Each structure stands twice: as structure tokens, then as C-alpha cells.
Amino acid sequence: MDRSDSPASLDGYVPFPEDRIAAYRDAGHWRDRTFHDVLDERSSEAPGSVAAVGPHRELTYGDLADRTRRLATALRSRGIEAGERVVFHLPNAVEFLEAFFACSRVGAIPVQALPRHREAELRHLFEQFDATAYVTAGDRYEMGVDFVELIDGLETEYPALETLIGVADDPATLPNGWHDFDALCGAEVDEGALDGIDVDPTQPGVMLLSGGTTGMPKGIPRTHNDYVFQWEHMADVAGVEDDWVAFPSVPIGHNASLNCVVGAAVWTGATVAVEPTLKPEALMDLVEREGGTYSLLIPTQLVDVLDHPERDDYDLSTLEVLVSGGQKVPPRVVRDAVEEWEVGFCNIFGMAEGPLVCTRPDDPVDVQAETVGRPIADAAELRIVDLDREEEVPRGSTGELAVRGPGYFTGYFRNDEENAENFDDDGWFYTEDVLARRDDGNYQVFGRIKNTIIRGGENIYAPGVEDVVAEHPAVANVAIVAMPDERLGERPCAFVELAEGATSLTLDELSDFLEEKGLAVFKRPERLEIMPELPRTEVGKLDKKRLEELAATNADENPE
Ligand code: AMP
């Protein structure tokens, strides 16, 4: 495809080098399909198949293609141009898919705010991305805060922010100047207006955000080509079929859902079933109601469902493949899920920046429980390097994971400092995650470099210890973090959420258990805090930064 007349690269985006673009095209990894090209292909193959179903609405692939054309025309007529950033702030809802593919048609870039983001994050996003539009839930969905009311008026502080869109059952509830989402989707299609748009698939089609509750999120631009490449491979390794019902269990704007569930489903022509409330009961209800087959859950969500007192009241027999990751999945949880539901299990190591490494549904359960498997695509380049980032470590040894390839990002948006720190001159991205590659080719995750607990010079990788603690019957969820110590530098502190029915757990009981399990003495937690609920990040992971703060605040009270 001739892209010589493509618009200039987006300011603040680090483009793929020309030679890599050419190589990925030559090898067939990149086929220059935009997100909406994928939708249009599915819609022409099977227009009547259900693309999206929510509690109140259902859209076929034909409907979705049609409504996104209408919405794209409306966005275009409001002046939204290729390369502009649109902040999405929506729950898991059918409207998300409409907005996502409509933006793709005009070449606009959705910025994936999460429902738990609040005013501070939204202000940061408006400014950092010079957003020209904001789409949020009006009275149709409950998001904890009335974001229409919150944002109304703020636009005067952000001159670029001209278009405000609300998803409303009653459009009269939207303030003056706001656009009603449904009305925009009902606009007449002006083919002429859309035909003139040439969306460059080597340019960003979506802006994911880095996680964490402290510090503001960083923009992770993903091009149409590198993202679609991953949709295809994720669908392939998970074995997604066109009659499957895929349901995002974490917020739909997070890579875990958008890439591994929604992308893989649309690539295949499967149905995406959405449920705005991500509580375990609502998810189990969705599986029963829609015949849910496939999803990605954060490990704590799996624990919540596995330990749920009413789990057996729901029919979950349609589940075929479950993916879990985003945080270390305790082996016990993998084994329980596989045994309970007879599902294929993809234990996944994933990052919004690109890396997706996972076990296959038909791997032996030991591999699924103990490792995160292999990269989803052979074309992915992975290296495990020493902590000086100089040499590859021998097979089986731990080191930092560095990556490069047709499915990975090329740099944070407008963030030269982070990019200089985490990329080398050959385009390798250093992930700050410690992994090892076993002789059988499967990778194991040891944790973030920064979360490694260094006790008197000895490295303790918290996830390995957490796995053993999680085997204690009184433990539902555990996070182990460093607490500062004058003599040893750091010592491990465990925060535990008790299992259903358990009433207490003492440090001595835990230590005895770890002794029985043969865990080295220096790795054992030296302080135990029981919490009714461990703090979670906006995507549902256990929030280690917050726990480190808690451990540091009370460090004086450490038992000797
Ligand atoms: P995110 O920014 O939400 O995409 O999170 C990416 C980070 O989550 C990675 O850099 C890892 O530190 C962590 N992570 C993802 N999957 C796993 C896993 N299976 N085991 C341990 N950590 C993981």
C-alpha cells in the first residue's frame, strides 16, 4: 500500500523505523488493516452474527459496522480529525465498541481512561493529550460519580476540548453544549466525508494508559498494525471460535480486555458480551445468561469467583478458556480453576506496552500453574538480560525481560525521559520485569525489579513467596512488600485478606506453615497485617505501591 501521502507522524509519538515497517510487511506480520477494516471484514462475512451484547442491547456485526459509520460521520462533522485524541471514559458497555470503531474510521485516537479515574486523572489526560473530545456515561450507566456534572464547565480550561458526549437514556439530562451519544449514532451516513479519510495503520489507533494509582498514567500508543497483529495471535493461541462469547472482566479500556478479549473476539467474529458491573455475581450471571465462553480475569477476581459462597448457584458450564494474569497467578488458583471448570487455562504475562506471553489451553496443568508459557507470536523478539542491560543471561537464569517486535509499542507518548531510560538504540524496550526462560521454552515471572525486596543483600522475589503463602487455607489474597529496616535495609511484610470462613491468622502460624513448606527462612514475612480487603488499583490488581507506603509508615512497629 502506498503511504507516501500519509499525514506526518503524530507529534510526540515515536514511529516504528521504516526498515522495521518494511520487514513486518514483507513477512506478512503487518497487513495494513485498521481496526475498522477488521470490523468491516467480519461484517461483510457474517453481518447477522451478534457482535456485542449488553444487559439491554444487542448489535450484530452489520449493525455495529453501520452505527460506527454514522457515529464517525457525526464526529467528522463536529470537526474531529485524524490524529486527534478523544478521552473515553466508559464502563464495559456496547457503546464503548461503537465509539472505539467510530474513532478508528476517522483516524482519531481513543485515550483509555478507566472508570475509576477521577478529576485529577481526567485533567491530566486532557492536558497531556490535548484532547479534543470526551465521551462518558450519562444517566444510562452508574460509574460512582456523575462525570457529566463533574466535567461540565471544565472544558473552558482546556481550549482544545470542544466536543463533550454523554451516553444518556434521557438526553434532557445532558447540559447545554453536550451531545447525546445515541443521536450521534443515528446521524445520516455521509460516505463522501468518510471516503476522504485515509487512516494510516502504521500510526497510533489507540492510546492505552500505564497502570498504578500513584503518579499520573503514561500514554502507550499502539498502532493499528501492531495491535491487530496481537488480536490475531491472541485469538489463535487461545483457540477463540466464531461461536464463542467473550466477556471482558476487567475494564474494557484496559489492554487485558481490549486486546486479549475484545480484539481477539472481533478478529474471529465472536460475540463480545459486556456487563458494566464487574462484581463476581454480575460476571457469573453474565456467563449463565449469555453462555460466556472466554475471558481474562485478574487473579484476585478468579479468587473472588472460586471462593464465592453462591458460586454453585450459577451455571458456568459454558466456560471454555480462561486467561489470567496482570499479576502473578498463584499456582493453587490455576489448579483450582482448571479442576472446577475443566477449562483450558492461559496463564498470561501481559503489559499494555505489548508483551503477551502465555500458556496454551492444552498445556499440562503443571505448565499452566508454574509458568506463563511462551510468547503469543514467533515473530516476537524476547531477551532476558543482566541487570546492567549488557549481556543475555544463560538459559534458566533470572534477568530483565527486553522486547522488540511487530506487536510491541515503540515509546511512551510525549515522554522523552522514560523513553531514554527504557529503550536502547536498537529499539529494545526494557520492561523492568524479572523473568527466566526454562529449558522447555516456558517463561517464569519473578516480579518487578523495583518490587524486589533486598534483605541484607539477599534478593527476595515477592511473587514466589506469595505463591506459598496463598496455599495456606486461611489466605484468600496476599501481597508481600518491602518494609524499611535500619539494619537489613528491607524486610518482607505480608498483607493478607482472609479466606471465606477463616477468622484469624498469626505471624507464628504463618511461619510454621512456611517452615513446613520448606521456604527459606530469610524469605519468610517478618510482619503480617490482616486487612478486610487489600487495596486494588483501578484495574483490580493488588496495589503494591499503596501497601509499600503502609508498610513504611508503620515500620517502627515491626516486631523483632
Ligand atoms: P499493565 O501496566 O497493567 O499493563 O501491567 C503490566 C505489568 O503487570 C507487568 O509489567 C508486570 O509487572 C505485571 N504482570 C503482568 N502479568 C503478570 C504475571 N502473569 N505475573 C506477574 N506479573 C505480571
Automatic annotation (TrEMBL):
Domain (AMP-binding enzyme C-terminal): residue spans on this chain: 465-541
Under the GO molecular function aspect, what terms does this record hold?
A: acid-thiol ligase activity
InterPro entries per UniProt: AMP-bd_C, AMP-bd_C_sf, AMP-binding_CS, AMP-dep_synth/lig_dom, ANL_N_sf, ATP-dep_AMP-bd_enzyme
Q: Report which superkingdom the organism of origin falls in.
A: Archaea
Show the PROSITE patterns listed in the entry: AMP_BINDING
Q: Where is the AMP-dependent synthetase/ligase domain?
A: 40-413
Please report the name of this protein according to its UniProt entry: (2,3-dihydroxybenzoyl)adenylate synthase
